[in-house]
């Protein structure tokens, strides 16, 4: 919705290459049909962002932490690049929510959320949120009135009720995720853990600067390939097997065949989505139960 309102034929969009799979599908299959050119760059490579700027660049877009690799964007630096180019800087803040990160304070022009995730917190409704200056939002409201992509009053009420517990939920998600990430990091059947809360994560210090905590999503690779990853997922009894995230209940997914399954092999490779990668959106259950549920599958590898 906000893309259609902010861009027009002949414009150029720079996007981080490791955004959510459906975002790339939308850009590749639909936005480009309206004459918008899209260039993908590595999220953390500031030189690549700068070099990608063209005279017709009108928007820089990223999500941070990225889904599912938890890479961290330097928001101040990307804001400076966008301002120099005369372009809008848009940030998908779904993983952190406004509780853990406020991109507008770091120079973003527009912040977007999948309200279906943490803003609701229980997977009850589909919806989204777009935040920015009065000037920019007034333009979006005009589009909403003409095109009609607005949620029902009941769904809006559900999301508002979810916001009442958002702070305490995000604190609990982050605490559980941090403990799980450290546990996975020491497990002999786990190859690499992707979570910015780990001190050896390349974006750890930047995340500490921009965020008040590290969020609830942990991704990791296992020994072997797709079959071994699937065996971990299939062995879970407490954790829900679903591509959604942000619920009070822990969810688990195999990104290569679900959230990023519609991407080409090349696009998945660019985004670091391997066949042995697993993403866990850590919920609010007792962390011992979450560990034991994953241990069951990991012990089978």
CATH class (first level) name of the largest domain: Alpha Beta
> What proportion of the residues form beta strands (DSSP E)?
15-25%
Unreliable parts: none
How many helical elements? 12
- Kindly identify the CATH topology of the largest domain: Aspartate Aminotransferase, domain 2
Query: CA-to-CA gap between the ends?
Result: 44 Å
Shape: globular
What is the structural class? Answer: alpha/beta
Based on CA atoms alone, the radius of gyration comes out at 19 Å
Count up the domains.
2
Fourth-tier CATH superfamily name of the largest domain:
Type I PLP-dependent aspartate aminotransferase-like (Major domain)
Q: Could you tell me the number of beta strands?
A: 11
User: Average pLDDT, to the nearest integer?
Assistant: 94
Strand order in the sheet with the most strands:
2-1-3-4-5-6
Largest sheet geometry: 6 strands, mixed
- The CATH architecture of the largest domain can be given as 3-Layer(aba) Sandwich
What is the chain-wise order of helices and strands? HEHEHEHEHEEHHHEHEHEEHEH
Helix content: 25-40%
């Amino acid at each position: 919705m906000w893309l259609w309102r902010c861009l027009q034929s002949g414009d150029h969009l720079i996007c981080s290459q490791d955004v959510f799979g459906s975002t790339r599908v939308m850009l590749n299959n639909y936005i480009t049909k309206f004459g918008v050119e899209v260039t993908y760059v590595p999220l953390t490579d500031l030189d690549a962002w700068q070099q990608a700027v063209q005279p017709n660049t009108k928007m820089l877009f990223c999500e941070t932490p990225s889904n599912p690799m938890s890479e961290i964007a330097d928001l101040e630096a990307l804001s400076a690049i966008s301002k120099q180019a005369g372009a809008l800087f848009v940030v998908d803040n779904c993983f952190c929510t406004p509780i853990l990160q406020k991109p507008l304070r770091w120079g973003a022009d527009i912040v977007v959320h999948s309200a279906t995730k943490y803003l609701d917190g229980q997977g009850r409704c589909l919806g989204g949120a777009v935040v920015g200056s009065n000037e920019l939002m007034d333009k979006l409201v005009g589009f909403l009135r003409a095109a009609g992509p607005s949620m029902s009053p009941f769904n809006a009420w559900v999301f508002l009720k979810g916001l009442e517990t958002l702070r305490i939920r995000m604190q609990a998600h982050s605490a559980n995720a941090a403990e799980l990430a450290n546990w996975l990091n020491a497990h002999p059947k786990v190859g690499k853990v992707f979570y910015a809360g780990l001190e050896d994560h390349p974006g750890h210090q930047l995340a500490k600067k921009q965020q008040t905590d590290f969020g609830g999503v942990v991704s990791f690779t296992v020994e072997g390939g797709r079959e071994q990853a699937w065996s971990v997922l299939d062995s879970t009894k407490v954790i829900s097997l679903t591509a959604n995230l942000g619920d009070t209940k822990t969810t688990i997914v195999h990104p290569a065949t679900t959230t990023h399954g519609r991407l080409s092999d090349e696009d998945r490779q660019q985004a670091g989505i391997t066949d042995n990668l697993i993403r866990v959106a850590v919920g609010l259950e007792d962390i011992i139960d979450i560990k034991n549920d994953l241990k069951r599958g990991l012990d089978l590898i």
